[in-house]
Specification:
By secondary structure, the chain is mainly α. It has eight helices and no strands. Helix 3 runs antiparallel to helix 4. The two termini are 23 Å apart.
Length: 162
């Protein structure tokens, strides 16, 4: 419930031409509280790993990965995503894409062109316990597909993970 409220408040904070800082601050606080209670999930595990391996900016990596991780997770909990869609007045993926576009980032830099770096980054991500929490657990090729798509901004080419 707290995570859902965080998403709704953050969406409101980013809905105008300029960010509404009070809503964004409250949304971030609620999101942090939700993570504190439940632990990190797929999105943050992949984002933190990519930041560590590539030295890219944290905010940019989060923005680029968000549409992909949301798409990947929908198939794992369709009912929860449908409730979020209702609360937001549209698909969660549309909000994620909007936030990514607002960040004006082009991808994950050399992660998309350096195959050795990609292999090491995927292997490092696979060691994260957060990737075993979902049902079914994330597989190596699924993680690699998310990183590849984020590297090329080919968001719509990634199928939801079931």
């Amino acid at each position: 419930a707290v995570a859902s409220e965080a998403i709704t408040v953050l969406a409101t904070g980013w809905s105008g031409g300029e960010p509404e800082r009070n809503s964004i601050a409250l949304g971030a606080l609620l999101g942090g509280w939700a993570v504190d209670q439940s632990g990190l999930g797929l999105h943050h595990a992949l984002a933190q790993t990519a930041v560590r391996m590539t030295s890219l900016q944290h905010a940019h990596v989060n923005a680029v990965l968000l549409p992909l991780t949301v798409t990947a997770l929908r198939g794992r909990d369709t009912a929860r995503f449908e409730r979020l869609d209702d609360a937001l007045g549209g698909p969660v993926e549309a909000l994620a894409e909007k936030l990514c576009n607002r960040a004006e980032v082009a991808g994950l830099g050399r992660l998309g062109t350096d195959t050795d770096l990609m292999d090491v980054t995927v292997a490092t991500a696979m060691e994260r316990p957060e990737l075993t929490r979902g049902t079914p657990p994330m597989e190596r090729d699924q993680v690699a597909a998310i990183y590849r798509a984020a590297s090329t901004q080919a968001h719509r080419a990634l199928d939801p993970i079931k």
